[in-house]
Amino acid sequence: MPTRKHFDRRHFLQLTAAVVTTSALCPLNTLAGERPVKRSLKKGYMLNTFPGGKKAISVLEQFKMLKEAGFEGVEPSSELDPEEVLKARDATGLTIASMSCGTTTRSFSSANAMVREKAVQALVRELKNAKDYGATSVLVVPGGVSADVSYVENYQRCQECIRKALPTAEKLGVKMALENVWNNFLLSPLEAVRFVDDFKSPWVGWHFDVGNVMYIGWPEHWIRALDKRIAKVHIKEFSRKKMNEQGLRAGFSVEYLEGDNNWARVMKAFDDINYNGWFIIESSCASCKQGMEPMDYLTKVSAELDKIIAS
Length: 311
Description:
By secondary structure, this protein is of the alpha/beta class. It has one domain (35-309): TIM Barrel, CATH 3.20.20. The chain is built from twelve helices and nine strands. The radius of gyration is 22 Å and the shape is globular. The termini are far apart.
């Protein structure tokens, strides 16, 4: 009859063999009791950050180059001609993932009621354009706080403006996705959650920018707090070292995968909330594009996005 010592040793050897077999078959991130990661994320590109300048290359050519570089969709701005965008979409088969109308909605903070009303009407128009594009959300910048606009004033004005556009969003089935930008507003994930939840509507969500929170916190904390409220994601790199040495905005002057974003933790957070939507490149590093042909740069960041997704 085997002794306790023999049983423990045999049990240990069996467990060891099982772990070796598992490690050969599964990714490393499944060994600590985690489920295998199977990500079905879609790759997009924000047209406002197209290399070489937006006006230097036609919208159609931009779409063609993005498709060749391996992107599946784009995020055009409200400044573009809708007919030109639709022709480029139909010619290439790229998806319009989202639509950016941040320039318009920054006016939600204005003390002038007529200015705010004009911004609301512009947002309503862009919601209709987004519907025509087949986009499921529009990017909304929630005003801004400044020396002349208090936090409370901006909170109230933005809520009022968004509520005015909400019936249109509901009717069209297009979500208004608020982005965390450097506008001195909604500076914590819990506050962002409260702001969205105040509307009690599935047609108000969040357009999460990974790089934009790096100077005040950690993206993975925001991701888990915002959870299902996240409609789209902007992918930006950020260097805290450059920020500390050269100034706040210098933090963006870094290549993808060479900054301080902990992409493994970020991706784990997205896995935890079961996010399977769009990852949209917003390349804010102007110096990174210098000396490169647009096609070469797009191919480069497309490959870098693949590595980020696989982190």
